[in-house]
Design goal:
This protein has 228 residues and is an alpha/beta fold. It has one domain: Rossmann fold (3-Layer(aba) Sandwich). Helix content is 27%, strand content 20%. The protein has a seven-stranded mixed beta sheet with strand order 3-2-1-4-5-7-6. Strand 4, helix 5 and strand 5 form a beta-alpha-beta unit. Helix 1 packs antiparallel against helix 3. The protein is globular, with a radius of gyration of 18 Å. The protein binds S-adenosylmethionine (SAM). S-adenosylmethionine binds next to strand 1, helix 3 and strand 2.
């Protein structure tokens, strides 16, 4: 007798069904996501994603929201999107606003009381990617995970403009500000700071003010874990 396969769907299976480009059929982020998120799968976590998707069609998008809703049965799922959307999904809170609006995002933090998982899949502009991190870091719970997608955009000035990207990994944008990859790479230094007793070895002027356990880079995806 052949026993039925009763294993739960993987994140990638949900991603393929939902049609999000995070799936193995496109960017292939789901295998990486699942390494980090599988231990949280049954937990009562709160997940915030920036970016609903669907370009400029108000009735389109929400594919990754469907995937998260299916994968995390006990989670609160919130999504931020700058464009108006009408295709709401049961069990997903859709909030219209910008990934770089501090008052709007602080309002979400008041509503949810912090986030265990934050995913930036919105504009993919360096300036807004960095701004979202700066605003949302305080709202990430200790031990929480911050995923930053499509970080390759930091090199694609032909597409995103010289003010947002630079094909030279060490070259700044024309605004003098770092690209998203330069900023995220800089966060790796923050992992080395372990509190005031380190200050002689690690002068405070080098500390940006973040308390981080790890910064991991994959092809086109960065994963940051806040310290406990
Ligand atoms: C790549 S799509 C999101 C795809 C979706 N997360 C998925 O995996 O199926 C990016 C979305 O971010 C939205 N967006 C762009 N700039 C934004 C901003 N400043 N704040 C919030 N959303 C923004 C776009 O309108 C678009 O719908």
């Amino acid at each position: 007798m052949t026993l039925p396969d009763i294993r739960p769907f993987t994140l990638d299976q949900f991603a393929v069904l939902a049609g999000t480009d995070k799936a193995s059929t496109h960017h292939g982020y789901t295998a990486i996501y699942e390494r980090y998120l599988e231990p949280l799968r049954q937990g009562p976590i709160t997940l915030l994603e920036l970016g609903w998707g669907g370009h400029e069609d108000p009735e389109k998008g929400g594919a990754s929201a469907v995937m998260w809703r299916s994968y995390f049965p006990n989670a609160r799922i919130a999504v931020v999107e700058i464009e108006p959307k009408t295709n709401h999904i049961d069990g997903v809170d859709l909030h219209e606003g910008s990934q770089a609006d501090p008052e709007f995002l602080a309002g979400l933090n008041d509503l949810y009381g912090g986030f265990d998982v934050i995913i930036d899949d919105a504009s993919h502009l360096s300036s807004l990617t960095i701004r979202s991190w700066e605003i949302l870091y305080p709202f990430l719970r200790p031990g929480g995970l911050y995923f930053c997608e499509d970080v390759h955009m930091a090199y694609h000035s032909h597409f995103y403009g010289d003010d947002e990207a630079n094909p030279d990994p060490d070259g700044r944008t024309t605004t003098g500000k770092p690209t998203a990859m330069q900023y995220l790479r800089r966060l790796a230094d923050e992992v080395q700071y372990h509190g005031p007793s380190d200050l002689e070895l690690f002068p405070k002027r080098y500390w940006l003010g973040y308390s981080l356990e790890s910064v991991h880079f994959y092809y086109n995806l960065a994963v940051i874990r806040k310290a406990q």
